Amino acid sequence: MSGNNFDIQVQSEDGSITLLSVSPDMVMKRVFLTYCREKLIDWKTVRFVLDGKRISPAKTIDELGLKDGDKIDAMFSQTGGGFAN
């Protein structure tokens, strides 16, 4: 880490955690793209959540109030579906 950079955790549905180095002015879309590139998945298929709320890709780390060691969740988007019998 250098300057104002720090690490946040991204936890996937299977419980695995990925550490990403971020800066306060970094937009979340960049975080999403970096995570998905490491996991070899399309960023549009994943929802990123903080405290139960979906994270806007336009928000910055600072706007979300994220600090060193904070965790966000990555969940696969679900489309379609039906009724349970």
From TrEMBL:
Coiled coil: none
Record-annotated Ubiquitin-like domain positions: 6-81
One Pfam entry name: Rad60-SLD
Domain of life: Eukaryota
Family matches, as InterPro entries: Rad60/SUMO-like_dom, Ubiquitin-like_dom, Ubiquitin-like_domsf
Record protein name field: Ubiquitin-like domain-containing protein
